[in-house]
Amino acid sequence: MSNTTTNDRVNQMTASPTAPSTAESRKSLIKLDGVTKVYYTDELETHALSGIQLDILEGEYVAIAGPSGGGKTTLLSILGLLDSPTSGVYLLGGQPVESLSRSQRADVRNQRIGFIFQAFNLIGDLTVYENVELPLTYRGMPAEERRKRVNGALERVGMSHRTNHYPAQLSGGQQQRVAVARAVSGDPLILLADEPTGNLDSANGEAIMELLAELHANGATICMVTHDPRFARHADRTVHLFDGRIVEEERGERAATDQQELRESGFGVA
Amino acid sequence: MTGIGRDLRYAMRMLLRSPSFAITVVVILGLGIGSMTAIFTVVNGVLFQPLAYPQPDRIVALQELSSKGHPMRVAGPNFTDIHEQSRSFKALAEVSNMGPVTVLGAAEPQRSREVLVSQDFFRVMGVQPTRGRAFLPEEQVSGGAPAVIVSHAFWKRALAGGSIAGKTLSFDGRVYSVIGVMPEGFDYPRGVELWTAAGIEAPRSSRTAHNWSVLGRLADGVSLQRARSDVSNIARRLKAQYGSDIEMVDASLVPLRDQMVGNVRTPLLVFLGATAVLLLIAVANVSNLLLARLAVRRQEIAVRVALGAGFRSLIQQLMAESLVLSLVSGAAGVLLAYVGTALLLAFSPSYIPRMGDVSVDGRVVLFALGVSIIVAIALSVMAAFSGVPEDIRGALAGGQRTLAGSGSGRIARDTLVVVQTGLTLVLLAGAALMGRSILHLLKVDTGFRTDGVLVMNVAATSPDDNARVRSFEEQLLAQLRATPGVRAVGAISSFPLQDDGSNGTYLLLNTPDEIKTIDEFSALAKDPSRSGNASWRVASAGYFDAMHIPVVRGRVFDGSDASDADVTAAVVSESFAKRQWPSQDPLGRLIQFGNMDGDMRALRIVGVVGDVRATSISQPPDPTLYAYSRQRPGSMGESHIAIWTSGDPNALIPAARAALKKVDANVPPTFSTVEQVIGSSTSDRRFSFLLLGVFGVTALVLAVAGMYAVVSYLVTQRTREIGVRIAFGAHGADVLRLVMGRGAALASIGIGLGLLAAVALTRVSASMLYGITATDPVAYVAGALLLATVVIVASYVPARRAAMLNPTEALRNE
Asked: Measured between alpha carbons, how far is residue A64 from residues A49, A194, A232 in Å?
């Protein structure tokens, strides 16, 4: 390790993932060790995250839950290399990411991470096809390969009949499907979803969750921020964040039930 | 229009709450309105203001017309005939500018310009001396008592503003009684300080000696058209009567104001047009700012609509804001116009007449107000069509699910940037054309030494006394030649590029004594195979050496050319020799140059010298004949001494002044360097370049600001989109390309359209160019490259900011 360069590490991170088989054989995809994030504003020091220890295995479906202001989105930003921790170690695919340059982080995001946002964040000037194609163009992928991947991704989310439409011509549920297609088109190591159902009605929200479950069943690693216990139920494991700390980790159905209790106990869930 | 007062109050409150926005708009619009108002101030003073004489529109200038339609000054006998035969004028007068003379008899010797005027001059102008009187009829006859009327400035300066009774002044070899003082500000012809009676000069019989400018005051009830018809008929009759003895085939009348400003009308209107373009750029710039501001206020406006504001009241509110901004900018523009006008007056070249009439007056303020109102209307219309959100619900929600700006607003902003860029290119191309013209002019071979020469202008105290003139010149040249630092020295009757000099008809002689009188000359000169037209100069022997004018054949003047020789020596320019004797040797040829200096001796060509651009640096050299000043001193009353120095010419001025004082302490000199003479001769184009350059740079700054604002706005509007792109792996270069690509696309369209507009609009400046056409590709490419570079740099700054965005914060951006 000590002889490897930063570029080597990026290359290693961006090598084709090995498909997970069983839980026992799964390797750690993400490992956070003592991660903290402190914001300094007007001489105020805000600890958004404190001493986070987190392992996400290949093929795992993890939900991050907690009240508003608990640090969920900050954690997701750090996981997505959109932000950097103030201290602690973040290993992605076994490689530390702290020393990556801005450009290398862009490469990692482009090739290993897929984002799904609450507000969809489709680009209004681009067609459905072009939106999905966007990450692939930054990868410098040949047009034919892009076409195959975009069409494949749109088929997976059931939007291949709307390729030439603009986002404004789609419903919210359809837009989020396109956003999911965009996230998976690059075949990332992990999908990071930030409240993916937050702007959808329950029917559309449920449909998106089923889509994520289907992707997970096919081997995708997913890390989803949600405040809705019904949706957290889909995850293998739910990590509860409160005041920037992981206060509890639970698995499957129990995780969802406990989150419901947490909500009823008066914590303000967004 | 109800509630306009409330809207205006609200508008002022809104602007006071956004001082940076208000100040930016006022500065930009103030620059546009101020520039246009400043130039309009000059245009108003020079072109539009009536002349400062009673009923100035009744004063006209009469000119002879040649067979080619060229206007000419009027020959004495022709004037007399028109004067006698025409009934269209209340008064008709001859005017002949005599140039500078040395005036003695005042507190100190003076160098002043003299003009001969005939009896009716002051009646034509409608102005009489404020002190003393005008000329009496007996002072306007040949041999009459010499009398002079002086300008108010001369009276104050040279006569201490005291009584003129019994005062006399000596010049032109005569002693003149001072009989009057003209009113303060009377300045016709421009720069003249001494008006003397034309009648005391012996009348000339030649109908081809075009010596007189003629002014007339139309008789009551006579229209300009009727007077034109009248003088035209008389001119045709005279032509029929005198045939080849007269060159005039027709006559024209033009209002005096038109004649005075005719040469500067086009440049001034080009400058006014340039400022109009600058104002358009400023309006486009401000429109863009307003659109961006309206986008920010979309929610506020939607709330107003939701609360029941009608379209009309909304428009009224937006118009009130535009009106307040425009009026404040107009006021700032008037202030700027004051400063700009002062600068224009300080830097304007002498070729622009009537600058003394230029001032910020009521008409100028009205102009600024009118422009401000037009700007307000333009901004209001733009705001009306772009300010009211169609999607009220969406505007009230204040958000969008997808990441794109409003389509119509974006198109409007893009269009404004394109317009700004295009118009800026028009100004830059205009400035580049002027700059290239000047570069071409600077490369022109003038035919004489262009540095290291000091030019001393002196007027002999007795210009009509040939012996004294000759003695004065020879002594002065000897003194100067002996001055340390002087390498060569010579004198000439008209210095190149400094004054027009004389030209006239010459006759090729077969024998030296072929003609004895001017009538014989006139008769033979009708034969075109023996005659021609050329410039007439009288020069000393050392002039050609001092000015580095090469001797091509033969020799220049020397000691063998005795002053009393029966045939005097002449040197001709190359173009003269080539034109007259294309395949023959000019040396030894005999020439008679009419009555240029009252000397009817023949001239024998002893040498050929290089051509010189004497009348204008942009005009090809005139064929010229040089007579020898020792033999023909009659034209040397006013002479110009070229002193070639070994160091800084200006450093030699005290020594030159001392040398002159030794010869004649009564002659006041003026000095200039040859560089100053050349600079002055190109001052019209340099002034045009300076003005268009200033406008071009201002436009460039506005265009840069416009592009910066639009790209910054684009980045602000698309911050979240940029965040998404970064999240999906966009590198800094990708974001730079995305943002700058938009700027580059807009600039490209603007430059393309600007090139088309520039080609169409700069044609009007064709007459102001030299060495290039109005479609000179180098100028256009230079302008386009400069503009493209600058606007791309302008878009780089916000693009760079976008590339460095923190994606987390960008994604949070609403």
From this structure: 13, 9, 8
Partner B, chain A 133-192, Cβ-Cβ below 8 Å: 134-135, 138-139, 166-168, 172, 175, 182, 186
The CA angle B73-B77-B80, to the nearest 5 degrees, is 95
- CA-to-CA distance for B481 and B659, rounded, in angstroms? 10
User: In this predicted structure, what is the pLDDT of residue B609?
Assistant: 97
Tell me how far apart the alpha carbons of residues A117 and B318 are, in angstroms, rounded to a whole number.
38
The tokens describing A146, both together, are 């892009």
H/E stretch holding B71: strand B71-72
**What is the tens place of the pLDDT at every residue in B333-349?**
899 989 988 888 888 77
Q: Do A138 and B720 lie within an 8 Å CB cutoff?
A: no
Q: Which residues of A touch B720 (CB under 8 A)?
A: 121
The residues near B318 (Cβ < 8 Å, ≥ 6 apart) are: B294, B380, B383, B384, B387
For A:71-130, CB contacts with B below 8 A are: 77, 80, 82-83, 102-103, 106-107, 109-111, 115, 117, 119-125
Say whether B730 and A139 touch across the interface (CB within 8 A): no
Q: How far is B303 from chain A (nearest CA, A)?
A: 24
* The pairing of beta strand B192-197 with beta strand B131-132: unpaired
Residues from chain A that touch B811, judged by Cβ atoms under 8 A, are: 82, 117, 121
Question: What is the rounded CA–CA span in Å between residue B216 and residue A31?
Answer: 103
Report the gap between the CA of B400 and the closest CA in chain A (Å). Answer: 9
- Please check whether residue B509 is in contact with residue B591, taking contact to mean a CB–CB distance below 8 angstroms: yes
Structural contact between residues B697 and B446, judged by C-beta atoms closer than 8 angstroms: no
Q: Is the pLDDT of residue A270 over 50?
A: no
Predicted TM-score of the model (pTM):
0.76
Q: Which of A105, A140, A145 is nearest to A13 (CA)?
A: A105
pLDDT tens per residue, range A106-120: 899 999 999 998 888
* B721 interfaces chain A, CB cutoff of 8 Å: yes
* Cross-chain Cβ contact B729/A111 below 8 Å: yes
The per-residue pLDDT for B179 is: 96
Residue B183: DSSP 8-state: P
In this prediction the ipTM stands at 0.79
Task: Show Cβ contacts of residue B584 under 8 Å, excluding neighbours closer than 6 positions.
Answer: none
Alpha-carbon Rg for chain A, nearest whole angstrom, is 18
Task: Please confirm whether the linkage preceding B189 is cis (ω < 30° from 0).
Answer: yes
pLDDT tens figures, B129-168: 999 999 999 998 888 899 999 999 999 999 999 999 999 9
Q: A24 to chain B nearest CA, in Å? A: 31
Classify A166 as helix, strand or coil: coil
Q: Which among B720, B728, B807 has the least Cβ separation from residue A134?
A: B728
Distance from CA of A79 to the nearest CA of B (A): 12
CB within 8 Å: A138 and B404: no
- Classify A192 as helix, strand or coil: strand
Instruction: Tell me how far apart the alpha carbons of residues B12 and B598 are, in angstroms, rounded to a whole number.
Output: 77
The answer to whether the CB of B808 falls within 8 A of the CB of A77 is yes
